[in-house]
Each structure stands twice: as structure tokens, then as C-alpha cells.
Specification:
Blueprint (H helix, E strand, L loop, with lengths): L1 E3 L8 H11 L5 E5 L6 H7 L4 E4 L4 H13 L4
Parallel strand pairs: 1-2, 2-3
């Protein structure tokens, strides 16, 4: 499982996600960002992100997102 942000050095979260999916189609990815679920964020989610977690988040929210992302069939 991988946690990505929308804004990262080098590749965007979307670009990194697409590259990981190309390498391993079953990779589980959580998108964590301070942006709302609009525009580029929603497009990235529609591409097969396992879970979304809005920043700032608490440890319990991250734990729940990780549990659901790892227990999900496919992705």
C-alpha cells in the first residue's frame, strides 16, 4: 500500500498513481490531500484510488482508510 499526496516533488500524486498501476495493477493507494474532492482530485479518485483521506487527519482516520484499502477486493 502507498499513500500519495496530490502535490509531490517530481510527479504529481495522479502521475505517481498511474505509474504504480502500470507496474502493478493491484497496488492499493490512498490519496491524502488538503484539496477538496473536486477537479483533479476527483479525476484521480475515479482512476481507481482505494481510499481518500482529507488533510489534516487523525491517526484513527488514517488507520480506518488503511484497513479499508487493504481489505478491498481488486482496485
Amino acid at each position: 500500500m502507498v499513500i500519495v499526496d496530490m502535490i509531490m516533488p517530481g510527479l504529481s500524486g495522479r502521475e505517481a498513481f498511474l505509474e504504480m498501476k502500470r507496474i502493478n495493477s493491484s497496488v492499493r493507494v490512498i490519496l491524502s490531500t488538503g484539496f477538496t474532492k473536486e477537479g483533479a482530485v476527483q479525476e484521480t479518485l475515479d482512476g481507481g484510488i482505494a481510499r481518500f483521506i482529507q488533510k489534516p487527519y487523525r491517526l484513527e482516520e488514517l488507520s480506518e482508510a488503511m484497513f479499508h484499502a487493504l481489505s478491498r477486493e481488486g482496485s
